[in-house]
Write a structure and sequence with these properties.
Elements: E1 2-6, E2 11-16, E3 22-27, E4 34-36, E5 42-47, E6 50-55, E7 63-64, E8 70-74, E9 80-85, E10 88-93, E11 99-104
Antiparallel strand pairs: 1-2, 2-3, 4-5, 5-6, 6-7, 8-9, 9-10, 10-11
């Protein structure tokens, strides 16, 4: 198990539980929010172009979803992302990139 966090240099770091050694996972640029998938294999963050999903195995480049939103979170199975854009809570399917509005939250 690991802890992931955003550093002051706008990079994502991982520290294994019980360790004091940090490992840089990615340079993201303009990182403002962060979530780790339930299985721990991907990290979600808001980069300069919008929401992005990074494979922590290092085999794939980040998936740029090109949508703006705040408070992004993975679904329990990791296949979707919930986020808020303006006054609307939405869900995006990562594989198909289909967006569904869930509710107008009236902020």
């Amino acid at each position: 198990q690991s802890i992931f966090y955003a550093g002051n240099d706008e990079a994502i770091y991982r520290v294994a539980i019980g360790s004091t050694t940090r490992t840089k996972v990615a340079d993201t640029g303009n990182l403002t929010q962060l979530d780790v998938s339930p299985d721990g294999t991907r990290v979600l963050y808001y980069g300069g172009a919008g929401l992005e999903v990074l494979d922590l195995g290092g085999g794939s480049p980040a998936i740029e979803l090109l949508i703006s939103g705040v408070s992004p979170r993975f679904s329990p199975d990791g296949s979707k992302i919930a986020y808020v854009a303006g006054e609307v809570a939405s869900i995006i399917d990562i594989a198909t990139r289909t967006v569904s509005a869930v509710d107008n939250i009236g902020l």
